[in-house]
Design brief:
The protein is of the alpha+beta class. Among the domains are: 49 residues, no CATH class; 29 residues, no CATH class; 42 residues, no CATH class. 21% of the residues lie in helices and 29% in strands. The protein is built from two helices and 14 strands, in the order H-E-E-E-H-E-E-E-E-E-E-E-E-E-E-E. Strands 9-10-11-12-13-14 form a six-stranded antiparallel sheet, with no helix packed on it. Strands 2-1-3 form a three-stranded antiparallel sheet. Strands 5-4-8 form a three-stranded antiparallel sheet, with no helix packed on it.
Length: 189
């Protein structure tokens, strides 16, 4: 079907003589095909598609289009040359402390205000601010805690059992079964 559809599309766009005509054919299942001759066996003609004669472009139009494209290319090249030759302004320099407040206002002339009053408490003189920023909190230790140990090994807060060498001996599975690693296999009961 896809091949037939691809042929139909190709047939529609293929260069044909000026008076060409494409015939639309359909079979009993409703599958449509296109041809410039007779419909294939098992299909019947259901319509015709008239093709328009292609528009001819005169030689003067082609020359004009080529000249316009060349002029546009020259103008683009000139703009690129001018942009490359233009001096790059230096970045602005700060003439004093930068005022930044938590609401997103910033400026070098003290324009950070709340309802008309100056918010001088947000001057930025450098980092770190001693005593202003709290020390970062240590990440919480999520490892299971060892609860009890005996001659056979140790058990942690999640129900895992470790042998005397510190290797995982048995653990509680997600489904509640007790699992034991045996070589490269894990047995859960």
């Amino acid at each position: 079907m896809r091949l037939l559809l691809a042929f139909a599309v190709a047939a529609l766009f293929a260069p044909l003589p000026a008076a060409a005509e494409v015939i639309r054919c359909a079979d009993a299942a409703g599958n449509v095909s296109y041809t410039d001759g007779r419909c294939a066996a098992g299909t019947k003609q259901v319509g015709r598609v008239q093709l328009q004669e292609p528009v001819a472009i005169s030689e003067s139009d082609r020359q004009r289009q080529a000249q316009e494209a060349e002029a546009a290319a020259r103008a683009g090249a000139q703009q690129r040359r001018e942009a490359a030759a233009a001096p790059v302004p230096p970045p602005p320099t700060s003439s004093g402390p930068i005022i930044i407040d938590g609401r997103g206002n910033s400026g070098g002339s003290g324009n950070s205000t709340i309802a008309g009053r100056d918010d001088a408490g947000v001057m930025d003189y450098g980092y770190p601010y001693p005593g202003v920023y709290p020390a970062p909190a240590r990440p919480r230790d999520m490892r299971p805690r060892i609860r009890s140990c005996d001659g056979a090994g140790c058990q942690d807060s999640q129900g895992n059992h470790y042998n005397r060498a510190g290797q995982l001996d048995r653990y509680q599975g997600i489904d509640g079964k007790t699992c034991r690693p045996v070589g490269t296999t894990t047995i859960c009961r």
